[in-house]
Amino acid sequence: MPAQRKSVRREQRLRKKHKSVKPKKGNKFKYLIFFLIPLALFLWVSGTTKYWDSNRKLTLAIAKSNGDVSVVVFDPIADSMTNIEIPGETEVEVARHKGVWRLKSVAKLGEKEGIGAQLTAETLTKHFGFPVFLWAEEGAKGFVDDNVPGLLSAVISSYETSLGLGDKIQIGYFSLKVKNYKKETINLAETRYLVKAILSDSEEGYRVTKTFPPAISALFADPEISDQTARTKIVDKTTNESGKAVGEIVQVLGYKVVAVDLEKSESTNCTVAGKSSRNVDFLANLFSCDKVIDSNLGFDIIITLGDSFDRRF
Question: 300 forms bridges with which residues in the sheet?
């Protein structure tokens, strides 16, 4: 048989063999699994995320076992993290009218009240003017530690926190991505915001000065709010006239308070009304208020405060 004819037949056999090989069903199933697993994981994380927003700063108060408190600002827009360390020996006026205590005692007071480190977050907002409502116990300190085991522990270990599992995963992933030169720690004891003094218990500690450092205030500002110059009105129906203090806190975020109206006190909680659901949600979470979305308001935000709010402020 001529060599040319043998070559043709060999080529025909190879073509038939190639056509007879069909993709296995198992391979298609594997491809489907590889697609479905990431999709399911994404949906699961999204479903357990309560507060993380990749377009907005997230501030977390971490109550440490030694009494110190970390206020951590995660900024996904600037890809940066700032850890503000507050000594536990700082004298504070505790939220919910619990009196004057050292900061290290607030978490224990919160345990007695059944709200744990939430009282710490509320006290930071009231006494320091830091707009923070998210809190966690010491297990979350791994988010700011420069080691992977600590970060992993902060994500998967069990501890009391207001964060959802999705939030912990998102924060952990974000912390892992932030470059070291974009991580900053500020010790308030080394700033002019705290001064050493003899406290109410006749022992030495720290007190807050009247001057709020602009550099620290800027850490909490929301660039989007500042650009909008969101006009804000506060209707104060509290006996103790808490509207001014609330106004100072929202101004740290960038809201422009143009009016604080004092009205007859009422035994109501508080309401945040506004045109933007994004702004309303954040402020309502910060002060634990009811929400109202109304595009016809004369102001961008109207915060109405009553005596029920004042009793826990």
Answer: none
pTM of the model: 0.84
* Domain locations in the chain as residue ranges: 58-214, 221-311
CATH number for the region 58-214 comes to 3.30.420.590
- For the domain made up of 221-311, the CATH class stated in words is alpha beta
Q: Which residues contact 257 (CB under 8 A, 6 or more apart)?
A: 232, 233, 234, 247, 250, 251
Neighbour count for residue 169 (Cβ, 10 Å): 19
* Distance separating alpha carbons of residues 309 and 238, to the nearest angstrom: 8
- Residue showing tokens 């509207």: 243
CA–CA separation, 230 and 95 (whole Å) = 27
Tell me which H or E stretch contains 309.
helix 307-311
Distance between alpha carbon 196 and the CA centroid of its chain, in Å?
A: 30
Alpha-carbon gap, residue 46 to 261, rounded angstroms: 40
CA distances from 77 to 20, 73, 98, 207, 222 (A): 55, 12, 37, 33, 10
Q: How far apart are CA 31 and CA 27, in angstroms?
A: 6
Kindly state the DSSP code that residue 156 receives in the 8-state scheme: H
Q: What is the pLDDT of residues 134-165, one digit of tens each?
A: 999 999 999 998 888 999 999 999 999 999 99
- DSSP secondary structure, 45-59, as one string: HHHT-SS--TTS-EE
**Residues 6 or more apart whose Cβ sits within 8 Å of residue 162:** 50, 51, 118, 121, 133, 134, 135, 136
